[in-house]
Task: inverse folding
């Protein structure tokens, strides 16, 4: 939590003073340094089908490594020390965090060879901070940087029926469809005011653990089946690892999707159910750009499947495992 | 609001007296005169891609004008004076309004060359007033008229977790799939009893403004891509205009879809989020015949995008703009 | 209700004693005997399009009878007397029932020629009782039997915003996609503790009638259109019969789907609306493995349509009727 910079706001001149003035004193400015970088990406680093080893990787294993563009987090403006992120985040960019009332200041450096941007869902911005369409931040040229200011107002926070934190997507939005497919995707988690552990640690007090999962079919070869990577956080056939928890933990799952007409996914956990806005289920329906957060407390130990329940997607490797240990 | 006829009900002989007898005294009979008409329709009247002018209209611009069949509202039974409707309604038929307890009396005149009907969602009817399947109103021949009586009972009104008004679709249902594609689509908005501004004005007191959006891919050329018009209220590439509001207004969005397997849409606003049954989001998932109503209070001025977040749909022009002015 | 065996639990040695110990005294062990069997299945036993007789069955009528694999319920371990089930259940396996706190003991006999299993959603199990992936119950060989023990804990029951009972799917999960398509599908209904009529009758007190509907396109001929049976409980073009109720009855609909990318269905009733978690609608959106339960009290008598609102699905026969009689 100490990896992004947090500043208390003593007095601030800002484009929406009227909103900020009603916020509690501890409102913070949270700074992130994020670079867009070209990097090789392996959809299945083990080279294996870890779900059903005998079946192999099928046509989807013909080629596993592709050049992707990713959002990479750094600890400061020297862009030298990586923001650590857990293995299960896969291809996702850094998970930005804020409490309602905070401001996010995102220093974006485009280290790639094409114009890119960062467009956030949920948070408040003016046209120059939209990271899309028009305005100064809509297109950041190769080698250039831009600082986005996003206000985390009440309308960016959990609604009355939401849990204590909710998830938003951010993604590049110059040629939006292409850039999401390139891998320029991340998430923002916003905690309800007063529910954060502390000003420096915005994770809610009422959860012990958080996982994020992006269900998206990357299209690597112009619609050829072998290039349709049915991925969870950019990994296929069980190659996403690290969803590890224990019985009794209060676990929040942030679920998102992006993509195309075929990206209608039904996220299913074996071994435990979730509470989805007061509804009990073990299958969550998502479509491109869906964002939802659901809760569970694991009750049965095991090495459980976690997969999309759409037949063709299952067969194409859109599955991995989550592990539940006995009580710590 | 004075454009449809409202009659107080003093005493009424009706097919469901038992229900009406329990309604408050101010229950109204609301009359509408609606004709089905053949009319040319232009999916992009400007002839331009108003979202990304440089990109043009692509294959979808090869042909823009088609003959559609539409529901056209008139002020009375002479069918001469048009019911005015805002530009943003596009291809939609008149938005019918009622308060729980009211009765809708719809005088339908088929001015086209094929049998048509009006089938409503939500409201109460008997077989002759279903506008579908069998019964007297199931098929109204060319040149003929039929009066539908629809009872707006409690089960047609908002549920306990709904906002103060909800939206229902109506559409022709002789050869239902064909006729929806022809453009024979409209909406009914039902206000919770006691939440209306007055008997003559059923709009809820707790909102300042209302918009309706139909996300639907019209199929004009037997599945040829150039004829697949990825439209919002029948307009593509920013050609739907008039979604104009101001900071601080209480705005309700009535969202509907119709169509086929590809009509899974994810409606996204730039610039502001919505409350969807207590859930905070800026993306609403809809499938064919989905109907949902969500609320927002605009917080940031700008000329914002409003689009489907499915990649292919965005690229095919399923987007437009909504404008937020500074406070009035 | 007397067809499955119910045992009171006096003292039980079980893999999760800690959970059971907190359950009320009347917790029951409910036993079912279910065989998987190969059997011919007719998608339209009448041989007719009962919705629009003049239109016929189209390409989908070229072949109506296929060999399916089904879950068949028996009254005891002799597997001789069938568990009765209503006509409207169609191809579905027996509807298992439990109250939160109960344990389900499922004696599964594989009478077919290939390895199969029973994998449940929602309920609590250890790896040997998952009926999937690995563990003793993951693959039951032809001629063999296996007894699954599923614990119906609080996380298998209705959430705070759910009605008094909710539905879960169960299905075979050796080669999951193939076996669901073969017809190996059933449902479990779990009633909130204290809401059951009695220990021997777990149906909730607050409803009078229950229907279950599976919307799924069976794929009988390797994606050939004629073999894509757009079915409700395995019947097409109105051939599912028995959804019969009366005005004023409290009716719960358990809605489920399974299948593929095209199995995004929008379930629509003519004649009445439903309450879906406090939301009023007459269209429920489901994707593969969606499971949801909604309530209605019929208000208008008639022989009403019940269908998927996706155009191609309607045309392919994904519709039937439900009948509302006048008050009993």
Result:
């Amino acid at each position: 939590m100490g990896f992004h910079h947090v500043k208390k706001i003593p007095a601030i001149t800002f484009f929406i003073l009227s909103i900020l003035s009603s916020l509690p004193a501890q409102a913070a400015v949270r700074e992130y340094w994020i670079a867009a970088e070209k990097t090789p990406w392996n959809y299945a680093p083990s080279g294996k089908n870890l779900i059903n080893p005998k079946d192999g990787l099928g046509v989807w294993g013909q080629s596993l490594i592709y050049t992707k563009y990713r959002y990479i987090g750094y600890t400061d403006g020297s862009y030298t020390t990586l923001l650590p992120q857990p293995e299960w985040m896969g291809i996702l960019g850094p998970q930005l965090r804020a409490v309602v009332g905070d401001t996010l200041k995102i220093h974006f450096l485009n280290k790639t060879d094409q114009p890119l941007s960062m467009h956030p869902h949920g948070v408040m911005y003016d046209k120059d901070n939209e990271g899309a369409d028009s305005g100064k931040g809509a297109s950041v040229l190769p080698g250039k940087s831009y600082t986005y200011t996003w206000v985390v107002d009440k309308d960016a926070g959990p609604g009355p029926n939401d849990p204590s934190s909710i998830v938003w997507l951010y993604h590049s939005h110059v040629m939006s469809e292409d850039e999401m497919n390139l891998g320029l995707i991340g998430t923002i988690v916003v905690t309800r005011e007063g529910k954060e552990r502390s000003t420096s640690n915005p994770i809610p007090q009422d959860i012990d653990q958080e996982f994020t999962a992006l269900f998206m079919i990357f299209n690597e070869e112009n619609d050829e089946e072998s290039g349709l990577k049915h991925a969870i956080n950019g990994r296929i056939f069980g190659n996403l690892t690290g969803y590890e928890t224990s019985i009794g933990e209060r676990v929040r799952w942030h679920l998102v999707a992006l993509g195309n007409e075929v990206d209608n996914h039904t996220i299913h956990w074996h071994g435990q159910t979730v509470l989805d806005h007061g509804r009990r289920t073990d299958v969550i329906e998502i479509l491109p750009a869906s964002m939802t957060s659901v809760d569970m407390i694991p009750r049965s130990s095991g090495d459980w499947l976690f997969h999309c329940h759409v037949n063709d997607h299952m067969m194409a490797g859109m599955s991995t495992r989550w592990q539940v240990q006995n009580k710590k």
The first strand of chain B starts at residue 5 and ends at 8. The two ends of chain B are 23 Å apart (CA to CA).
